[in-house]
Amino acid sequence: MAQSNKPMQEFEEALLSEVEEEKPKEVDFLSAQERRKRMVQLQSKLRRRGPHRGEDFTLRQALIKADFWLLFISMIMGSGSGLTVIDNLRQISQSLGYKKAHIFISLVSIWNFLGRVGGGYVSELLVGDYAYPRPAALAVFQLIMTFGHVFITMGWPGSMYVSTLLIILGYGAHWAIVPATASELFGLRNFGSLYNFITLSNPMGTLVFSSIIASKIYDYEAEKQARGLHASDPLECNGSICFFLTSIIMAGLCIVGALLCMVLVFRTKIVYANLYRVAKVKHMHVTEFNLKKKIKAFNL
Questions:
Q1: Taken in order 13, 17, 19, 25, is the CA torsion positive or negative?
Q2: Could you tell me what percent of the chain has a pLDDT over 90?
Q3: C-alpha–C-alpha distance, residues 295 and 265, integer Å
Q4: CA–CA gap between residue 193 and residue 58 (Å, rounded)
Q5: pLDDT tens digits, residue range 53-85?
Q6: For 237-263, what is each residue's pLDDT tens digit?
Q7: How far apart are CA 45 and CA 217, in angstroms?
Q8: Can you list the alpha helix ranges (DSSP code H) found in 63-200?
Q9: Which three-class secondary structure state does DSSP give residue 182?
Q10: Are the CB atoms for 204 and 76 separated by under 8 Å?
């Protein structure tokens, strides 16, 4: 009987976390009896509204949830800034004095792969061992990307290798962590539509950050350096100044993305505790039961 009540108890805890977020501020100043009455009314309202964190959402249901937009916007900030570097890798490396840009293009595939593996591994450690929300791992990788963007602004010898490593590792980690997070918070039944909507963050990020911000700033700096040269000479920008402002903006966007992820972590602590701590306890009980069976069989 106690086991049959566990799922209901987990559901109630997840629901109460949403009640706390939705309640008006004036509820805290009411009497205990009136406050309990208002909370019950709000809880009943949330039950009728649709699925809750950890249950199966349709795309339309997910689009009205703050958690979904926190995840989506942080994805735009992180993956968009990473893709901006990938799109402009040849110009960045040439402006910093590297003649063989194809080396960095080859390294992108390696760091991207390692980022996906590393992102998945680190996030699994968080949720598996500590039942801590997976977006915390995404925040860590976005902060790593921030340092990568800052390295580009320095223009030090060899900084391009370091910045490429940090940025592309973080970019790859997004594509391991975000799909898993979406499936945990919004379910698997409509995961295809949810995931495909989230992938829109890539073209949206590159459209704004690469096509508008990075290219405009690069052209502006190139035109400044081209004054006094023949009009027939191709516009090229040299020096760390070419992508200095762009990199500062990208670093700022990664910090914003990390902050959004931490807001999501705070909002989903109860959900992850229910998803993984309960699963871990069940696994321990099954392991203990199997061990007892083996000992009993051995004694016989």
A1: positive
A2: 50
A3: 42
A4: 8
A5: 778 899 999 999 999 999 999 999 999 999 999
A6: 888 899 999 999 999 999 999 999 999
A7: 50
A8: 66-87, 89-95, 102-130, 135-154, 159-186, 191-198
A9: helix
A10: yes
